């Protein structure tokens, strides 16, 4: 008989944290679960600790793989191996709240069959000693939404900062399999690429507002150790290219809900403009490096980009013209940079209101 929940836990260099993570699962009052642990080659005793603490318990299954630098590969393999009805993505240096599985189970059974059950997290910042509750959905949010409705809701509430953490949502495994929803291997900001696709494709989304996930922000994580303005530029190029391809595919399908397009322009393409042309980017990242990754994004052409931008505002369409100029006409890159210097001064765009800021590690 298949379990109700499947935990998928990527683990790499988490020896100081993994025992606490496993204990938070084992101590749950609701015990109808399995836990799949993906261990990437580590520099510490992560694998030894896991095998010591889980040995003899058939609910734990372990697979090992080479080091990739992100959680993506382990999450994909773990989802394929999972047998549960619902998948919970839990990082090996985080934990879940006492008794949360029973509460989540009861809430799911009250409204069964949804594709996504967004919950809430408690973010514990070990750098500044602060904690905060994060729930993308207000308590007065609609009890059920379609994917496009949830996209519009979050755009209105989050004002473009739409990057729901994978860990924040309980996913129905059948939904993930049906749509072949996977993370891109090696990508560090998986949430920013995966979550918008999953959100749009979901037929039913039921927010349950359960603060179940205890998220650790630590000083030696991938995000907090990031150095330099271009550290994640490759990631953002891969993300933007993938999301443009996603739009190109779903926008040609019957039943496409075009209401989401202005949201996606704001969330994806305004973010791209900021990453590549903001005052900080222009100051710290050479034009050649910015051009290299923009050329990667548009190596298959501008078709999806141009079709999407037809739904953009006049300033957004003018900005898109100068993005194309920057890519297609190297001799005029200085002119495109000059335009964006004026553009950002006039529009007052900042990472807080026009940039999707990642919260994944």
What gap, in angstroms, lies between the N and C termini?
Answer: 34 Å
Helix content: 40-55%
- The assigned CATH architecture of the largest domain is Alpha-Beta Complex
CATH superfamily caption of the largest domain: Spore Coat Polysaccharide Biosynthesis Protein SpsA, Chain A
CATH class of the largest domain: Alpha Beta
Which strands sit side by side, in order, in the main sheet? 3-2-1-4-9-6
- Structural class computed from helices and strand pairing: alpha/beta
Which residue ranges are poorly predicted, with pLDDT under 50 across at least 5 consecutive positions? 351-361
**Can you tell me the CATH topology of the largest domain?**
Spore Coat Polysaccharide Biosynthesis Protein SpsA, Chain A
Mean pLDDT: 91
Shape: globular
How many individual domains? 2
Q: How big is the Rg?
A: 21 Å
- Written as H for each helix and E for each strand, in order along the chain, the element string is EHEHEHEEHEEEHEHHEHHHHHHHHH
